[in-house]
Amino acid sequence: MQDKEEERSLINVEKKLSADGFTQDFDVRAGRLETINNESKRSYAPEEVTIVDFYRFEGESDPDDMSILYAIECVDGVRGTISNAYGTYADADTDAFLQKVEDLGKNLKKAHK
Hints:
- The chain is α+β, with helices and mostly antiparallel strands.
- It has three helices and six strands; from the N terminus they run H-H-E-E-E-E-E-E-H.
- It has one domain (4-98).
């Protein structure tokens, strides 16, 4: 049996999400969400994206070293993840994009625990 910390490790959450069909890796470029591990690149506007779930992780040695992993589903059914630092070290473009998604009313559907 895994302890709670091990269950919540970034690697284990990524494995679970991948098994659930969240197989693409995303990045934000020029205000759009893009697939980064796909031969045929795809790009999405905030209104074409839903945040399905998110997970926060604290750094082992520094509580300020936090990150968030988002499970994303796009309008065409493409599912994947994007991560970002939390707080001071967050990527401003990623934060701005995900905030637009939330502002458009595509709020969290807590489906993966």
